[in-house]
Amino acid sequence: MKILLAVDGSTYTKKMLAYLTTHNELFSAGNEFTVYTAQAPLPPRARAAVGKDIADGYHAEEAEKVLGPVCKFLARHGINARSAWKVGHAGESIAKFADSGKYDLLVMGSHGHSALGNLVMGSVATQVLAHCTVPVLLVR
Known about the structure:
- This protein has 5 helices and 5 strands.
- The protein has a 5-stranded parallel β-sheet, sandwiched between helices.
- The longest helix has 25 residues, at about 50-75.
- The chain has one domain: Rossmann fold.
- The protein is α/β, with parallel strands linked by helices.
């Protein structure tokens, strides 16, 4: 099975990873995993002020802060996952990446860093469910 793990480094990302480790039918080396994060774009004025190279470097560093620990966690559990990131609005970016990559399943936490904005289900999760054609497993 081709599985996309959408992560943002929040507590709910950690809960999602804990869930996977207790469900061997999902979390096995026989599956193909990709870990994905979306970086919020810098405001146009800020990007213009610092320049393209510095802005791109900033996004790469921020993505690595999120992806690095997740990939290390998966490696400790015998999973060699690919990683990817894009700059864009998280909900739309995750849905587009999942659809274009022809994933069998998208797994993500029900909330992220902006959990206060939507108490029942995070706004990113809501956007993903609205735009994604891939089955989504939300972990709370």
